[in-house]
Design brief:
By secondary structure, the chain is an alpha+beta fold. The protein has helices spanning 2-23, 50-61, 80-89, 91-94, 101-106, 118-131, 134-138, 141-161, 168-184, 197-215, 218-221, 232-255, 264-274, 285-313, 315-328, 343-355, 388-393, 408-411, 429-446; strands spanning 64-69, 72-77, 96-97, 164-165, 365-366, 371-373, 376-378, 383-386, 447-450, 461-463, 467-469, 474-478. A 5-stranded mixed sheet has the order 1-2-8-5-3. A 3-stranded antiparallel sheet has the order 4-12-9. The chain has a two-stranded antiparallel ribbon with strand order 6-7. Strand 10 (461-463) and strand 11 (467-469) form a beta hairpin. Bound molecules: protoporphyrin IX containing FE. The site of protoporphyrin IX containing FE has 26 residues, from helix 14 and helix 19. Its main location: membrane.
Amino acid sequence: MEIITTLLLTIAVILFCSIYFKNKKRDDYPPGPFNLPFLGALYLIKQNQAHLGLHKLYKKYGKIFSMKFGDVDTIVISEPSIILEMFHNQGAKFYDRFITPSFEIVGGYRKNIGFTNGPHWKKIRGIVNASLTKSKTRQLEDLINFQFDKMHDSLELELKKTDIINMKTFFKKLTFNVIFNYCFGGFVPYEDESIPEDVKIFVLNSERLLSHLAAGKASDYIHCLKPFSSYQELHNIMDGIMSFIKPNVEYHIKTLDENKPRDFIDNLIIEIKNDPAKTIDVSCIQNICVDLLVGGTDTTATTLQWMILYLSNNPHYQEKLFQEIKSISPDGFPSLSDRGKFTFFNAVLKETFRRSPIVPLGLSHMVAEDAQVEQYFLPKGTQVLANFYSASLDESIWEEPLVFNPMRHFNSQSPVLVFSVGPRKCPGQNLSEDELFLIGTKIFKLFKFSRPSEELFDESPVMGVTLEAKFFNSKIELR
Ligand code: HEM
């Protein structure tokens, strides 16, 4: 009996010492909360509310703090100045993606843009950046306007039945169609009953995918759980998504005319074929499309929905916006070349991004080589999370941060970083901002949005696919 007790005690001491010494960091490692074995500091974070847990830790430990996500060493950066310093000024050291087992599956085992590193990422990112530069996305102006007209027709039909409408579904169809057309050259009808079954299944699976990723999977960070954990659901979701994308890509490969590229996919096939280094192959195309379709639909639609919510809660700003649109474009609608003149619209958009940072923690990065940032040492391999939520909503940076006040941007040069910065920043920023300008100025010129009752719309977000507004119906009147 005595021998067994001694043996157990010895094992416990060895285990404790190994965890203690493994976790012990240099004195110049950033401060942070107490980490439990295996769990790290995840006990401080509620599922689907990581942004709130990290905001509390930021208040306690400052703009650069450390914690363990399960057994993964992590650094959280929470103020615009430090995010700019690491992701932009020292971007080369911090642009690698930290890739979890779930990200591996979603990226088709390093075939996409979002969850790859190294030469593959550089090649794909170069092609995507080139096709989404400001001048290229401006060629999409006609497409966005055409899709807006389609959505408008469908909205007018709905308005004949009722003036109380949830706009989110209209915006989602519009933004999906823009990116779908950009990739594949096609688009889907706005009337629910006419939408093909495969598109419905694709959209459903995209939503399941983003909710799955937002909820997080314990075994991605607590490695000893991996043998007991199944990734089958994620595989099923990806199979569902691919069953829609794959035939579309195959059709493009079969019918390609190199002299007449029809869309982004055709251009991508040509680039891949002509790349002497053969960095990527055509099997990557479907994973790249998933990134663009999934990343480009909900994000922009959710932002439009937030804009309607804030301008319904603040009708005086909606009126000011209407006057601006009417005075600059008295007949018809603005075009992208007018954007600089719309100072109030631009302030409203910036304030919407600030007040509701819809991707509150971005996508995780990783330290590529040992680095020194301010007084801190950051070892290679550490996960880095940019806390855009705190950067947008902390009172040390923004006065009365919970008040929606576009006017603040006329006096402040503080950046709003929702798209991130540096080599890894969102490649869809130009497209998204173009869509938001064209759709936003049209919708607020044509319609007045208000609350169906005196009660204000709830401004607190829910973590869904993105940081979303709770469900609300708008009362819509023609201007
Ligand atoms: C309001 C709209 C949007 C917001 C707020 C947003 C935000 C973000 C953020 C924060 C990241 C992570 C950046 C980083 O790792 O530092 C990201 C990455 C990405 N976004 Fe967006 N995004 C938006 C729209 C779009 C659109 C329209 C597209 C598609 C055209 C898109 C495609 C992507 C892709 C492919 C990545 C991964 C990039 C990479 O890893 O190199 N996003 N986005």
